[in-house]
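S1.2 Input.
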Amino acid sequence: MKGIRFQYYFITTLVVLMTTGLAGDAYAQQLRSQAEIEENKALLQQLEITERLGDTIPSDIMLVNEEGEQVALSSFFDTGKPVLLNLIYYNCPSMCSLILNGVADAVEELRWDPGKEYEIVTISIDPEEDHLMASQQKERYVNQVNRSGLSDGWHFLTTDQHNVDRITEAVGMPFVWSDEAQEFLHASAIMFVSPEMKITRYLYGVTYRELDVRNALFDAADGKIGSTIERIALFCFTYDPDSRSYVPYAMNIMKVSGVVVLLGLGLFLGFFWLKERKKDKSDIRFDD
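S1.3 Output.
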């Protein structure tokens, strides 16, 4: 009996020790996972975009264009056109190319021509990149996108760390260098800026609907671009912050519909009045 009892206690103790060890490993793994989750949450909060709608971007931010010339950011607003602004870096191994491709696709679908109705300003946030890299990127997209005026209307720029800090702070879009990934971490968005250099809209993601881009440019221009028909059509949409896109606006649709009905009624009454007037004249001639 003593031998059996000893074996029982030995096996029980061994199982407890093994279980305790496994539980300890599981608990340690849980702690590591929880720490990673908290670390990722903190990083996501750090990379979150703070929309600066209505804020004015400093006009004296200095940049370097594709030719290696110093230019002020304000020079791209002198023509009185709205600006599609995006912050990326040219050596980005992942997201930046997707953002630029998304912009290129939207530009190709738009009826409006860059350089004519609006400007595109792409700024590298990496102070180590130079105008030669900017020039290569410009050549790539000018050749890729089938749109007249692109060479004059899409600007690729670089700048130093001081001005990188100023422009990223002005638009509320942080970039964080990761030693582990060996790249800048950042969110994905493009901004729209009025001719007065006021931020009017953010569009998120790496693909951008033509309708959203067109409406955002229209809002940034304060309704001063596009044909009359386009202005009426765009008037029927409003920006929905929940879906972060432009959606039909019932009130404006009703207004436009009301005007159309009134015009139609006016034309019908006018036609009826003219018909009756001609009839009265013919009756008078017959009496004579």
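S1.4 Remarks. Residues 108 and 176 are 31 Å apart (CA to CA).
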